[in-house]
Amino acid sequence: MKNKKVYIISHSHWDREWYLPYEQHHMRLIRLMDDLLEIFETNPDFNSFHLDGQTIILDDYLQVRPEKKEAVERAIKNGKLRIGPFYILQDDFLISSEANTRNTLIGLEESKKWGNPVMLGYFPDTFGNMGQTPQMMKEAGIKAAAFGRGVKPTGFNNAVINDEKYASQFSEMWWEGPDSTKIFGLLFANWYSNGNEIPTTKKEAIEFWEKKLADANQYASTDHLLMMNGVDHQPVQKDVTQAIALANELYPDIEFIHSNFDDYLAAVMSDLPDNLSTVTGELTSQETDGWYTLANTASARIYIKQKNTEVQRQLENVTEPLATMAYDMTKSYPHDELRYAWKTLMQNHPHDSICGCSVDEVHREMMARFDKALEVGKYLSDEATLALTSNIDTSKLPKNSKPFVVFNTAGVEKNDVIETTIEWMRRPFSEGKPNELYDELKQIAETLNEFHVVDSDRNVIPSELVTVDVAFDYDLPTDRFRIPYMAIFVTIRLSLASFNEMSWQSFALVEGASQTKDKTLFDKNTQTIENDYVKVAIQNNGLIDITNKESNITYPSGLIFENVGDIGNEYIFKQPENDIPLYAHDFPTTITVVTDTPLVCEVLIEQQMMIPLSAEDLLQEEMKAVIEMRDRQAQRSKDLGTFTLKTTLRVEKNNRQIKCHTEFDNQMRDHRLRVLFPTGLTTETHVAESIFEVVERPNTVQNKHWENPTNPQHQHSFVALRDEKNGITISNYGLNEYEILTNNTIAVTLLRAVGELGDWGYFPTPEAQCRGKQSVDFAIEVTTENTLFDSYKRAQSFQIPTTVKQTTHHTGVLAPNYQFLSIDGKQFALTALKRQEFGEDIITRGFNLSNQTSSTLNLEINEYTPFEANMIEEFKENTSVSTIMEPAKIQTLRWKKK
């Protein structure tokens, strides 16, 4: 009887784009697929090929070889080509919770159109694994996940290492999420290339198998050994069945078979020992020396992350909610258009793409994809708002006014001050020459200097006139030719107080002054901005002291801009040895009040730093010689240049957040810019938004083997530090990297400028230096125990704009003010309001912001009844909806019309 069985799975890890532009990889993919289809027809012993867990490969192939569709379909149905379950192999941490969900949803759906997907959560090269993977996979009907990073296999006599949280004595383990969901975890302990290029000659085969079998046996918990026959962009090994036949001859006590994940998983999972380790939560290579966690990809090419945030927020938080609200008016939902937008966006979500660690050509093409998806989202949201506003009753608004509707499509109440532009008067080109119409309206505009805003009950609400201007615009009717015109546009500032989540309110712009003259927010004597919640004292050097007026706690000397050298690469930050940080507050600073009104105060802090122009020339030689970043000796150049930071602090009347907008023109190279917030709080942990989770992480490295002097981490909309009573939450827009420094200072990365890709060779990336004009946005909120969860949701809302649509006076079936979805649940964060994929039921999704039970949760949509569903929008066996939300639970509800 044979003692062991070796399962050899042919595959190719297909990075869609990386060290070559997309089309270079694309053309190689065509050859791979052509070879596979030929092998399937000519070699009956070739079991199958695993298509890397991503269905986009089929789209890419058939785009060039549409005539091969029947051959591809036949190969899948015959089990030769193993596909799914995902659309792309994403980076978990750098795309949103919903983007991770849609990747599975679309991938499974498209896989099932072809045949049966491989039900394995496939994360071979993801740069860290999200803690909610077990729950997300189980919700999709997937009971196992395979991954290459995040867990340290100990292997020493197969002993359990109890003092290492992220270690396993075997390559097989249980993986438990924060909600206690547990799935089978398979670590590629010897990487996903441990069975690559198997020799077909005796001497070489013996050499190969002696090493490979020993490596696999070191970590295997069963007699079922896995050999992955492939690696990055690997052409198929055409003689693999011949190599397997030779192995069976050489090792009669071992059975070598050409296999697939379905058969391997069935075998290994039926034979697991009782002493498997259980790893929990995020798997981010914390049990290493700290250099290759690859977390610094969160700060490579920050412009990519900012654009991704913009497009995700447009699709998830603007377009889908508005289209869902408009459905009862339109009787249609843009399923196909949204699917196109999502697939276009997700083409930017593979780890080498969204991580910003590819050659410049790749990221140039990404920006075009972002723009394509964004414009689809904008078009669809415009269609939805038109359908809604055309049916909203505005007849009670003053006849001499200009009605408009504001939509809050965030899952939390807003108290923002927004600016919007309303068309006051127009002259179509059909009425005269454009320049004459322009001059006519310009004269009229000069007489317009007082406006106010009323709500649907004609109550005057807080607003301020910003500008009156004349500009060209045009309409594109659906039933006739375009209409160009000149128009007077009035820009107003409007206070939205207690504006309910998922609701709209109707207003009107009226000529004439309002009578209210409240006190402004800035005190020039103390150089302080103040509203009901917070007081911000601005020091002469640009640092700020923030006082929480509810707790009377002050956080002094925040808003520290730090600049250091970076001689690393797109993957890894490396500060030069003995490099001394430079701080903006040590340089000349000017402070200017830009806006000071009863609604908003904006103060510009301008700081003129002098920093090195680049690293010294030695860095270029070290990169060309492929010297690993840890061994580089380059220092920063002695030549200095002016690096100007312009930061606008913004405090709004009813808003707890201090909003910050920083601009700079980066002409320097090889450096990093961060903003620091000392907290003075005594706590050993902090929290940050991750995928369907507010994850708690230690402030300092817990691993005794850690060597990296830094410990970068991923975030989405916020990171927060708090003690038992007080805290500080830092929100951001597309700034995905932070670090907690040793004195509990929060550091958020604003720019990392480097000159090479890194990894296995020298690939220069001059555009990764991010030269040119840039801006970043973040916000600060000081919290108490009563406002903590609200601050998290406000941080999420910080990324979600309100939507404004001008309309006319008319009657309508919709109320002027209406809340479509109401949420009663302090710990609940909404991530989706959409229609079911290719159906008309409403889908809501969200998660518990805490790892503790939420005792109150109630969602309501008028005329709809909710039922529990899974993440792929299927009804669960128990469809009853509980008002109690379990710790870290992801909740998907499917709402049916009553």
UniProtKB/TrEMBL annotation:
Coiled coil: none annotated. SUPFAM superfamilies: Families 57/38 glycoside transferase middle domain, Galactose mutarotase-like, Glycoside hydrolase/deacetylase. Keywords: Glycosidase, Hydrolase, Metal-binding. GO terms for molecular function: alpha-mannosidase activity; carbohydrate binding; metal ion binding. It comes from the Bacteria. Residues 297-370 form the Glycoside hydrolase family 38 central domain. InterPro entries: Gal_mutarotase_sf_dom (IPR011013), GH38_beta-1 (IPR041509), GH38_C (IPR041147), Glyco_hydro/deAcase_b/a-brl (IPR011330), Glyco_hydro_38_C (IPR011682), Glyco_hydro_38_cen (IPR015341), Glyco_hydro_38_cen_sf (IPR037094), Glyco_hydro_38_N (IPR000602). GO terms for biological process: mannose metabolic process; oligosaccharide catabolic process. CDD domains: GH38N_AMII_SpGH38_like. Belongs to the glycosyl hydrolase 38 family. PANTHER family: ALPHA-MANNOSIDASE 2C1, MANNOSYLGLYCERATE HYDROLASE. This is Alpha-mannosidase.
